[in-house]
Amino acid sequence: MKLETHNSEIRLNRHETKTQMKIKAGQVLLVLLAASAVMPAKDPLLNVCMDAKHHKTKPGPEGTLHGQCAPWKDNACCTANTSSEAHRDQSYLYNFNWNHCGVMPPKCKRHFIQDTCLYECSPNLGPWIDQMWFDPAKGNPNVVVAKYYAWKKRSSPVGMENVTPEAGKAVCALPRPVLVLLPLALVLLPEGARCGPPAWGSL
């Protein structure tokens, strides 16, 4: 009887060991499953640089970036030279002068420089990159602007002011939010153009 009891205990221990192993294996699988759910999948739209005039081909550490571009120094799409040029009043980046409509107040200028640094340096703009850039060989950008204003005029309530821009002023008539959000659009402004109020004092 003792032998039978001993054999039963051995079988019971083996069964418990197998059950414990199954439970532990299940726990390990559960932890791995949870970890894979928590870890973000590699997003092809992040950690990419725009295919644009002053951007690097791949993001990477840049060492030293100037002023407001510094937050991207560990993984940047811009070079140190580009970040420095973004802070100059007359920059070679887009042949643009921050003071083209009069002396820009420091707070306003800081905003535009920060916006330029984001555009030039961030490797995480992939979701907003539109690969359908304007091709000068395929048409005049003022035609696109004119179509926008024609649509806006048709869809405006009766009594709204005429929103169609004068000839040659189509670019200046772009809505200010477009100009604020897309610094590249400012490049389209003719040299010496005066858009909006004669000075920045009202901002």
TrEMBL record:
Keyword terms, alphabetized: Disulfide bond, Signal
Superkingdom per UniProt: Eukaryota
Keyword hit for Repressor: no
Pfam families: Folate_rec (PF03024)
Cellular component annotations (GO), alphabetically ordered: external side of plasma membrane
Keyword Cell wall biogenesis/degradation appears in the UniProt entry: no
PANTHER family tied to this protein: FOLATE RECEPTOR, FOLATE RECEPTOR 1-RELATED
Family of this protein: Belongs to the folate receptor family.
Protein name as it appears in the record: Folate receptor-like domain-containing protein
Organism: Anas platyrhynchos platyrhynchos (Northern mallard)
